[in-house]
Write a structure and sequence with these properties.
The structure is a homodimer of 191-residue chains. The first copy, chain A, is an all-alpha fold. The first copy, chain A, folds into two domains: 52 residues, Arc Repressor Mutant, subunit A; 134 residues, Orthogonal Bundle (Tetracycline Repressor, domain 2), CATH 1.10.357. Helices cover 70% and strands 0% of the residues of chain A. In chain A, helix 4 packs across helix 7. The interface between A and B is large, with 38 and 38 residues. Chain A binds a DNA duplex (18 and 18 nucleotides) through loops.
DNA sequence: GTCTATAAATGGATAGAC
DNA sequence: GTCTATCCATTTATAGAC
């Protein structure tokens, strides 16, 4: 059956992607070759071309997968309850997502891979994430566009500091709730 | 005279570094080769080894130069006057420094070059910057360690968003003063 | 779908003449 | 100090046998 074959193909594709993420985490986002990637899934380099058109196609699939993961996690966020609690949950989710995987952070949010540009389809996922985040924050009472921008900057900044300057620790993580309070206070000063 | 020769040597070294920064800005921090670098200063690759021990030594010199630039700019900051004004000046200085040069930002604050580790001498400059920043903020009334951490996260976050999502624009730059106010209000709520 | 073999280019780095 | 020549490793990618 062609269905069976397609399923196997997709499974191997995912296996390759998982291995690529592992290499990116251990050797840096650009610190691995197709030979290494193939070896880590028990193949030789040319066989990878059965599943991907080349290295940039692999980066593109990783880019799309990363944004799909983020989108799914935003979707799971509780949106009912006290606005402050909702925002704390959202802040923690974003913080964790960034800190968990520095390589993913670099691929999704910084332009680190020389010459790589995400495909239009993959980039559309990035736009979906921003749109969905905007909805969540609006539901919690943050509907001013500048509020969303400031919110994003604040929590990506905390996560970036944590990942770069205290990996494995909690020096910036501890500041999360306080940062949410600071933010909420400045958005509703007279309430 | 050996003095003349040493001066010429240092000048050429700097010329090479300037060219390396240009390549890093245009082709990405890791998107250039020693051949290209040599060509851009009118040399062939082997001649570079008269001035640097290899590519990582060039990255190391760039790393040190970047932190020296930042240290100098912190030194120029006005420290007298209204604390809020001092903090606004400091915030703007940091923001500009990061946004000006994405490649420099990646080299100094993110681990983007596979295998590269700054030398102890260069890394000492990074520590100097943090110490000096701590002094400036303390002079403006921010002496709690967590306050400094939150400050750093907030303004590197704003700068990173500006550089990544609105290069050449001012979407996050416009939020700077408001962010300082938010920060100051949360640090001195009952004054 | 996976392999061997290999192309074709590029990388950092060194030897030695000038 | 700069060069030519070259080494040697590595890269992505392709051709074609099985």
């Amino acid at each position: 059956m062609s269905d069976r074959r397609a399923q196997r193909h997709a499974a191997t594709r995912q296996e390759i992607l998982d291995a690529a993420w592992n290499l990116a985490r251990s050797h840096g986002l650009t610190g691995w070759s197709l030979r290494e990637l193939a070896a880590s899934v028990g193949m030789r380099a040319p066989s990878l071309y059965v599943y991907f058109d080349g290295k940039d196609a692999i980066y593109d699939a990783m880019f799309a997968q990363g944004y799909r993961q983020l989108l799914e996690r935003i979707g799971r966020l509780p949106t009912a309850g006290e606005p402050v609690e909702v925002l704390r949950g959202a802040a923690r989710e974003f913080f964790d997502f960034y800190v968990e995987d520095a390589a993913r952070h670099q691929l999704l949010f910084l332009r680190v891979v020389p010459g790589f540009e995400p495909s239009p389809e993959s980039y559309a996922l990035a736009r979906d994430v921003v749109a969905r985040l905007r909805e969540v924050l609006a539901d919690a009472g943050l509907d001013r566009p500048e509020a969303v921008d400031l919110w994003t900057a604040l929590f990506t900044g905390l996560a970036s500091q944590q990942a770069s300057n205290d990996p494995g620790g909690d020096r910036w993580q501890r500041l999360l709730d306080r940062a949410v309070d600071m933010f909420v206070a400045s958005e509703a000063p007279a309430t």
